[in-house]
User: Which sequence fits this backbone?
């Protein structure tokens, strides 16, 4: 499974890979960040069982969090949906 680094909000917090500062670090540590536990959680997730709260949308049992991320500081240009946390 390949997730584009553009789908991630940086810096990205992870539990086993520390903070990932940018797309280059994400690519270099990809296999460790998106390990089998994370990939399996994504593969098993079904829309009807997603959990959402003020932090965003949770995949699996919190392996991946997704949220809207503002395109600018005041969020005047809208937002993009990005991966904001990986608990691997």
Assistant:
């Amino acid at each position: 499974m390949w997730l584009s680094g553009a789908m991630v909000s940086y810096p990205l917090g992870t539990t086993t890979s520390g903070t990932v500062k940018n797309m280059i670090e994400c690519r270099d540590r990809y296999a460790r960040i998106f390990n089998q536990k994370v990939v399996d959680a994504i593969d098993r997730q079904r829309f009807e069982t997603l959990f959402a709260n003020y932090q965003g949308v949770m995949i699996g049992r919190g392996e991946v969090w997704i949220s809207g991320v503002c395109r600018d500081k005041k969020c005047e240009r809208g937002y993009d949906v990005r991966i904001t946390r990986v608990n691997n």
Summary: Residues 5-86 form one domain. Helices lie at 23-28, 30-33, 36-44. The mean pLDDT is 93.
